[in-house]
Amino acid sequence: MIIFEHIQKQYSDGFIALKDINLTCGNGEITVLIGPSGCGKTTTMKLINRLINPTKGKVIIDGEDISTINQIELRRRIGYVIQHIGLFPHMDIATNVAVVPRLLKWDKQRIDKRVDELLNMVGLEPETYRNRYPSELSGGQQQRIGVIRALAAEPSLILMDEPFSALDPISREQLQEELIRLQKEIKKSIVFVTHDMDEALKIADKIVLMKDGNIVQQASPEEILRHPANDFVKNFIGKKRLQQVAKVPSVKEIMVRKPITISPKRGLAEAMKIMESKEVDTLLIVNDEDELQGYISIFDVLNEFEDESKRVKDIIQKFEHVVNPNMLLTEAINLINENNASYIPVVNDQNKLRGLLTRGSIVGHLSDVYPFNNNRGA
Ligand code: ADP
Ligand code: MG
């Protein structure tokens, strides 16, 4: 964990770049610093690996005040990736990646193994890329090398200062996806600087929004979107994104509130009759306590119909997925899509049936929100 305690940074020309920064970056999390150019993001980063020192306050990493740690040793414990990564042009890729392990005097075998492992991690075939030179790689590939070079000696902390800003939009998105995937595996503490809100929302566990040497808000992306601290934050997020958030309803606002149900004790003829009169091909099964047990389909009823001893509970089918009434509709839609379901039951924390989310109810909602026809030819 990194903690900034009342950090002030005044440069030698008298300019105060950071005023009173109090900040926590959690272990295994991606903390994203964002804000307009000149607000102090890079200054904040450089204080973490002591490229510069604060004029007031303390930076504490895992309980240690870093002013007491040897600078060189500190920097070896921290990976650093910057926008123009500066791979050494006269060194091949393997040698570039292994800079820090060599400084740490790892033996050759261990280094070679690590280089191949890292190249594989970012989808660059070691056989092909190990002995190439930086100029023989695309911008996106070079930046991948920058990222794995920072990971090479297994630092617990990685600083990334606008690492993807110079890339074209497609490479940038690819690297963002890769970082998210990689982070699931490596679970490092990452401090990441960007000025791109989409990037921040995509990768951050926590967003720290800065302005003129101060922190305006630090919170999860969800919290920032839902409760922006002031107009500056709102403007920075942008009207469009805020409107999108405001529009996303929760499942309970969209669901069908009275799904057709049946008790597990009933017989199959009764089930058939209900299906017929309500014009549905499945019934949700709930017990006397309103708890969801599963469902029966018309096909199962027809198959077993001859056997008069059979009850609903004998041909019950279980649901693999249910959703909570408070889940965001977008999440529920993903679940429905992934499972190719036509509906999904909505139950509360006690497994009591609260409703049913159907493809039909979702479409109905969307056509309310986006009245397509009304905008034509205006
Ligand atoms: P960001 O990374 O958010 O764009 P920086 O942290 O690089 O901003 O810079 C913050 C402010 O500090 C800027 O106004 C910048 O001009 C100033 N600054 C940065 N480095 C120095 C320096 N060495 N001496 C004086 N001012 C500096
Ligand atoms: Mg900067």
Describe what you observe in this structure:
By secondary structure, this protein is an alpha/beta fold. It has two domains: 2-245, P-loop containing nucleotide triphosphate hydrolases (Rossmann fold, 3-Layer(aba) Sandwich); 253-368, CBS-domain (Roll). Helices cover 38% and strands 22% of the residues. It has helices at 41-48, 71-76, 93-97, 99-103, 108-121, 126-129, 139-151, 169-186, 197-203, 221-226, 231-237, 239-247, 251-254, 268-278, 298-304, 329-338, 359-369; strands at 2-10, 16-25, 30-34, 56-61, 64-65, 78-82, 157-161, 189-194, 206-211, 214-219, 261-262, 282-286, 292-297, 343-347, 353-358. Helix 8 links the parallel strand 7 (157-161) and strand 8. Helix 14 (268-278) packs antiparallel against helix 15. It is elongated, with a radius of gyration of 28 Å. The two termini are 55 Å apart. The model is unreliable at 373-378 (pLDDT under 50). It binds adenosine-5'-diphosphate (ADP) and magnesium ion. Magnesium ion (MG) binds next to helix 1.
CATH architectural label of the largest domain? 3-Layer(aba) Sandwich
Q: What is the CATH fold-level name of the largest domain?
A: Rossmann fold
Q: What small molecules does this complex bind?
A: adenosine-5'-diphosphate, magnesium ion
Q: Extract low-pLDDT stretches.
A: 373-378
The CATH homologous superfamily of the largest domain is named P-loop containing nucleotide triphosphate hydrolases
The whole-number mean of residue pLDDT values reads 91
Helical residue percent band: 25-40%
Distance between the termini: 55 Å
CATH class of the largest domain: Alpha Beta
Strand segment count = 15
Largest sheet: 6 strands, mixed
Domain count: the total is: 2
Which structural category fits the helices and strands? alpha/beta
